[in-house]
Amino acid sequence: MAVNTQQLTRYKKEGRLITVLTAWDYLIAQAIDQAGVDVIMVGDSLAMVALGYDTTIPLTLDEMIHHAKAVRRGVKAALLVVDLPFMTYQESPEQAMRSAGRVLKETGAQAVKLEGGYPAMVQTVARLIKAGIPVMGHVGLTPQSVHQFGGFRQQGKSSKSGERILQEAIALEQAGAFAIVLEHIPEDLALRISQKLIIPTIGIGAGAHCDGQVLVTADLLGLSGWSPPFAKAYVNLRETIAQAAQAFCTEVREHQFPESDAKN
Ligand code: KIV
Questions:
Q1: pLDDT by residue (tens digit) across 188-202?
Q2: What proportions of the chain, in percent to the nearest 5, are helix, strand and coil?
Q3: Spelled out in words, what is the top-level CATH class assigned to the domain 5-235?
Q4: Which of 9, 111, 116, 244 is the most buried (most CB within 10 A)?
Q5: DSSP one-letter code for 56
Q6: Where are the domains of the chain?
Q7: Predicted TM-score of the model (pTM)
Q8: Whole-angstrom Cα distance, residue 8 to residue 79?
Q9: Protein residues whose CB sits closer than 6 Å to any atom of ligand 1
Q10: Sequence-ordered strand ranges (E) for 50-176
Q11: Span from the CA of 163 to the centroid of ligand 1 (angstroms)
Q12: Helix axes 61-74, 93-107, angle to 10 degrees
């Protein structure tokens, strides 16, 4: 049975940890969906892992929709969440409505994710939810603000910034968000937020006490040339791919592949 947004809150209540992975194309989506992951996220990290940009900032809504449509074709069971790219929702609630509306109508995703929990963004989230668009929040290290942070740095280290992130998470829950990503914040802060909220927290670089965990699938697979310190590679596909490509080159150059019909 397909996962839905309400189910995630039930999972939290039952103490069942939630699994989230990102996808950017059909084959990756199909493989992780068949593995039984609860939520598949077309994160704007695809700007870096699939398109080769240094940050998520250059990604356009059209590029995101193009990738999300491919992912949709591979997802049968997981809940599909799509990130709204930088500057496709920050301007006004109306801009966010147009962008999120396009994502849901054109890709078949069930929800959108957007970054930030400051008051104007909370109003935007409330507006989307009123229109029937489920929203996942994202606080802590919000990569679309990388230039403001001066790099992909841990957030919430001081008691003042930790308190601000906690208040943002509470405000997003009150606005109706169905889950919140906590990125690169101290473990004790993530624990406090997770205990305070009824909706699930999904951690990445936020320690072991969140209600679920998300990884960028390129990091999980060891595909990325660079990955953050909190990521875990479960396999080194970058090396495996290079070995396969080298074996192919060798076999072609040495007339071993393809085998000649004359031999058969
Ligand atoms: O863009 C992304 O992949 C994300 C996840 C890491 C949460 O936002």
A1: 999 999 999 999 999
A2: 45, 15, 40
A3: alpha beta
A4: 111
A5: S
A6: 5-235
A7: 0.97
A8: 10
A9: 22, 41, 43-45, 83, 181, 204, 214, 216
A10: 79-83, 111-113, 135-140
A11: 23
A12: 30
